Amino acid sequence: MSPTEVLIQQLLNGLTIGAYLALIALGYTMVYGIIELINFAHGDLFTFGFLISLSLFRLYGATGTLVGFELVWLFTTVLLLTMLLTGILNVVIDRIAYKPLRKAPRLAPLITAVGMSFALENIFANWYGSSQINYPDFFPRVDILREWFQMDTFVLFTTQDLLLVGVTIPLMIGLRYFVQRTKLGKAMRASAQNANAAAIMGINVERVIMTTFFIGGALAGAAGMIFGNFLHTGRYLMGFDAGLFAFTAAVFGGIGNITGAMLGGLIIGLIKAFSDQYLAAQWTRAVIFAILILVLVFRPQGLLGQGEAEKA
Amino acid sequence: MKQWRIYPLLALLVVVSMVLAACPAPAAAPAQEAAPAAEAAPAATEAPAAEAAPAEAAGGSVVKVYTSWPLQGPMLPEGDSMKKAVDLALKHYLDANGGGPAGLTIELVNLDDASPTTGSWDGTIEAENAQKCVNDADCLVYFGTYNSGAAKISMPITNRAGIAHITPANTYPGLTHAWDQGEPEIYRPSGTVNYFRTNASDDLQGWAGASWAKCLGYDTVYLLDDRQLYGKGVVDAFIQQAEKVGIEIVGRDGVESSDIDFRSLLTKVKAANPALVYGGFVIDSGGPQVIQQMGSLGLFDLGIKFMGPDGLVNPALVEQVGGADVANENVLLTFPGLAPSQLTSEDGLKFFNDFQAEYGMEPSPWSTYAYQAMQVILDSVDRAGTADRTAILDAMRGLKDFQGITGTFGFNENGDPTVFAMGGNIVRDGDIQYVGVISPDMVEAGTCDAAMP
After folding, report:
1. Rounded Cα–Cα distance for residues A42 and A24 (Å)
2. Which site among A12, A132, A143, A277 would you substitute to test the B interface, given the most B Cβ atoms closer than 10 Å to its Cβ?
3. A208 neighbors A187 (Cβ within 8 angstroms)
């Protein structure tokens, strides 16, 4: 591989890491935006999406690579079901662990969130075992540059990488449209700015919160399934790591800001790829958090955050 | 009202917990008191023994060998097979020599260090077992343990008493040489070495791995590890040997053991284009992912191979990396010992065949080393020539050019074998298949042909 090819490959690696981190980060940032809670169980929803989609594929009898019509309908069905189930799970978590504490001091739901995370992880460990899980190639894998474009290059960009980007970007655009243009989205923004005022104006804040949890969960579920289909490996604890970085991405971009979460995810993905390549893998986490500290020192509200002033 | 009721309850809880906390104390005490007891025991018991010695020596006295490893619970098949291997080693010796070593009678006392409640090894029981040996003036060799954790407990006890202690299975490196902080000195309170093993320790797989890699013609290597004690230790050992046999190290990275996305790191490895990636992993740290992603990123297609230690020798590996096709012929794994079916020496074959003839079953993996350690015990007693703890310990310490069933070896100053054989394996047809014997000196000794996949 020539240095240019390495650079391009790492750029692609960074983008794909960024894409799934961004999808998870959206859930953190949306929930924080509405009820100012760091939902620590959110990373585990990503694992849930991974596991439930694998179970669904098995339920439909899929064993290997899908082709043609089956690919289209089964893949879409599983994706939608995964999003639905993960969304519902997130709403249930909210009902059980956060809603009773809505008026409690802010630390209380934070602790129940941590507890929820442990509970989920242990359920996953019982469900799929504690060892590494292989996720088969359900989506066909084609080396795009070499097989479709006949390019003689070491750079590897497959249809599965394309799938990741191809699902993530429409979901993000859809979310932006939903939040900016629909009535419920408007209610969400209003609740985020001032829940009491929104309630006085006749907005059902609890319903808005429920919607937020559902959408955040659905996105994490989608991320889990797509992650499985492009990386093919996972573990019951994978949500902890992914969640940590996604949360960091959310803070990086400005917590509460949806575009910021996407940007934060991408930046962290790129830092990881380039740090692995040009520094050393053992320093990657240190580098990511060092940059985070630097950004927060100079811009405490994050890259695109508007700060607390507007909320008050 | 409610608040008042909770205080008596709390008080009761405190009392109960104090009682519970106090209970294990007497049980643990014997282990702690091992020091004075052990020191006192020889002094107290040697006097009568010395008096009796002249009389008994004439008629042939007894050498008791206390064995200690799990003989119940899930480890029973392994423990039972090891016990049978020891019996067989004694039988073979008696048949070949027409009597015990140096005219002495060898008596085996089989102890169990597993707890009846948990079914696995238990520190308190292991400490009691070692203490029993120390307190029995006729116990001249302590033979155990299976679990390295148990050895950590019995080693200081036998060490203070100056009894020869040999294991059939411990692979933890720190028992014999520098590893984690304070090891191995913390297991040797008397400052002398009394503990031996005939099998290699985990970290030395790196030595054999590097020599094997050289044999297979891999001249450049990229090293990865999970930064854990085991993974990093194996890679450190690999580097030592790689420098000796002349393998160029093109890079080394440590990864987060919980990480699962190694694409950016493996892109860097791909760009460095080594002949081999050596990964110090266990099945639950990143090893399976590294192998799987080496496949998906096309490293195997470029002819780059993966080699790893026994932490990855697990039937689940093939499934976890994505099926038989991914790793087929591309993944080499080392194992720190030879199973009985893998022995090639004449004595080894005799052991394997006689065991099956005698007991109607195949010996368990570690039976090899149970048999071989018993061979060492018998040889040491023979060379000591007398039923005396110190004489036998000195004889065992001086073991040189001994012909065991896995090969010819002696003990170094740490109690480790000077030469040891390991197994080389390859992932083939959806299985981890045994290829042949590998050893650190296989390059110089010219025994590369023994392990060609």
Report:
1. 8
2. A132
3. yes
Domain A3-298 belongs to what topology?
A: ABC transporter involved in vitamin B12 uptake, BtuC (1.10.3470)
CA A262 to chain centre: 9
Strand partners, B318: none
CB contact under 8 A, A276 and B227: no
CA dihedral B319, B325, B331, B336 (to 10 degrees): 40
Per-residue pLDDT of chain A (312 residues; tens, 9 = 90+): 788 999 999 999 999 999 999 999 998 888 888 888 888 999 999 999 999 999 999 999 888 888 888 889 999 999 999 999 999 999 999 999 999 998 888 889 999 999 999 999 999 999 988 888 999 989 988 888 888 888 888 888 899 999 998 999 999 899 989 988 999 999 998 988 888 899 999 999 999 999 999 999 999 999 999 999 989 999 888 999 899 999 999 998 988 888 888 899 999 999 999 999 998 888 999 999 998 899 889 988 888 876 544 443
CA distance B49 to B45: 6
Q: What are the residues of chain A with a beta carbon less than 8 Å away from any beta carbon of chain B? A: 1, 5-6, 9-10, 13-14, 16-17, 130-134, 136-137, 141, 154, 156, 231-235, 237-238, 240-241, 272-274, 276-277, 280-282, 285
What's the DSSP call for residue B344? -
Structural domain boundaries in chain A = 3-298
CB atoms B253 and A280 under 8 Å: yes
CB contact under 8 A, A233 and B268: no
The ipTM estimated for the assembled molecules is 0.89
Strand partners, B167: B197
Nearest-CA distance B280 → chain A (Å): 14
